[in-house]
Design brief:
This protein is α/β, with parallel strands linked by helices. It has helices spanning about 1-25, 40-45, 65-75, 110-115, 160-170, and strands spanning about 30-35, 50-55, 85, 95-105, 130-140, 140-150. Strand 5 (about 130-140) and strand 6 (about 140-150) form a beta hairpin.
């Protein structure tokens, strides 16, 4: 009971702190879609204590190791269930669930396209203006989808880029 109250207090503190911290950064995240396919229970069943296949397309900085940097940010962001976002899922992964993230899609894509297996064309590296689209996919369709925007960042470790990815994660997996 005490642990439950402490967890609720932690979540309430996080709910207050995230909007304040997000307001300090120069990123913007738009929640495009939270469909009826999404539920916290289903996300937990798909990802808690498991690998969650994560497909990252595009590289706005043109730097090696970009995918791993993004996965690192995703894994450090508390979304509830202990999830291992990975490009190389092991046997714990459930095949019907995955996350798709595309940076600077060209042309822009709708959430449904993020959940198809087809590669999405992306623009040449441009850290001056980055658009990121992401979706939590269940059997070929999106359960949630978000879009993030950030400009004039120096690399994947830039605090504004990190903030955008964290904000996208919190928006994609709402409590």
């Amino acid at each position: 009971m005490i642990l439950h109250r402490l967890r609720l207090l932690s979540l309430a503190s996080l709910a207050v702190a995230v909007p304040i911290l997000a307001g300090c950064a120069s990123d913007r995240v738009v929640v495009d879609d939270i469909s009826s396919r999404y539920s916290r229970v289903e996300f937990s069943a798909a990802a808690d204590g498991r690998d969650l296949r994560t497909v990252i397309q595009g590289n706005p900085f043109g730097t090696p190791g970009f995918d791993q940097a993004v996965l690192g940010i995703m894994n450090r962001t508390y979304v509830g269930p202990k999830t291992n976002f990975t490009a190389t899922p092991g046997p714990t992964a459930k095949r019907d669930y995955f996350v798709s993230v595309v940076f600077n899609p060209s042309p822009d894509v709708v959430p449904f396209a993020l959940c198809n297996s087809a590669p999405i064309p992306t623009a040449a590296p441009n850290p001056g203006q980055i658009t990121a689209r992401a979706a939590f996919c269940i059997t070929g369709g999106e359960a949630t989808a978000v879009t993030g925007y950030v400009s004039n960042v120096k690399g994947p470790d830039d605090p504004n880029f990190v903030s955008m990815i964290q904000h996208m994660m919190l928006s994609m997996f709402p409590y």
